[in-house]
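Researcher: Please translate sequence to structure tokens.
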Amino acid sequence: KIGHIGICPVRFGAGVQNKILEYMALGLPTITSRMGYEGIEANIGEEILIADNSDEYLKSLETLSENSVYQMIAKNARNFVAEKFNWSARLSVLVKNIERLTGK
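Model: Translation complete:
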């Protein structure tokens, strides 16, 4: 039995797609396109799945139909967002850039 899955077939856009990060933060295995994946840098096949056409989406759904894979990707996705997209992690990059620019 397959559970809930975040599916986000982004066809155009720019920057990190927050809806994808929201799915992952909720512990949903997420399938998106290469366009949707841009800027996220999660490990494909371990933290997120990529599909750009109907055959690839079907293959990804088949992959997630195995409960152990579903659970692994769900857990890894949640951990990835918690580690890489939390306020501390994101702000530290900003602080370093400000310090570099101001010479402090």
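Researcher: Any highlights?
Model: The chain is about 55% helix and 10% strand.
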